[in-house]
């Protein structure tokens, strides 16, 4: 039996990888940045620097593991790990093997295009989490720390329960995180 479970998991990973490649084919990503919990996919130095600037931790900056980051990439990795751990603490959920992607997109229009291609619906989102491919899609131009924390909450809830949970529960908990991020 363990062989079948491993084979099923590998097939699942292959299908998800193929889906991610298909969805992201309309946006040309060139770089990946790996932190403890996430792989950030982006198009270039300007985009990662802008993302870094937009996700200022403000009153949470005391949580940074290193006060001096050499590059914007180092700072982003550090910020993401701190933010993810903060969201886990607020939710009191600590899923094992938490690994997901964050795809940086230039604008809300790109985020909305990806959503429309994936789900066939028109929305006005600046960010969303896709549980199918374990990826947060976010507009660098429009991102705010609370919005990113909200989407990370969706990721953590998804990983913690390991199954689809009711949308209303997801939203209430994600909004709770957004409202209590700086407590």
SSE topology sketch:
Elements: H1 2-24, E1 31-34, E2 38-42, H2 45-54, H3 72-91, E3 100-105, H4 108-119, E4 127-130, E5 135-139, H5 145-161, H6 167-180
Parallel strand pairs: 2-3, 3-5
Antiparallel strand pairs: 1-2, 4-5
Helix pairs in contact: 2-3, 3-5, 5-6
CATH architecture: 3-Layer(aba) Sandwich
**Sheet with the most strands: spatial strand order:** 1-2-3-5-4
Looking at the structure, the CATH topology is Collagenase (Catalytic Domain)
How many alpha or pi helices?
6
Number of domains: 1
Judging from the principal axes of the Cα atoms, what is the shape? globular
Strand content: 5-15%
Largest sheet, in brief, is: 5 strands, mixed
Distance between the termini: 47 Å
What is the structural class? alpha/beta
Would you list the SSEs in sequence order as H and E?
HEEHHEHEEHH
Low-confidence stretches: 18-26
What's the CATH first level? Alpha Beta
As a percent range, the share of helical residues equals: 40-55%
- Overall pLDDT confidence: 85
Radius of gyration: 16 Å
Strand segment tally: 5
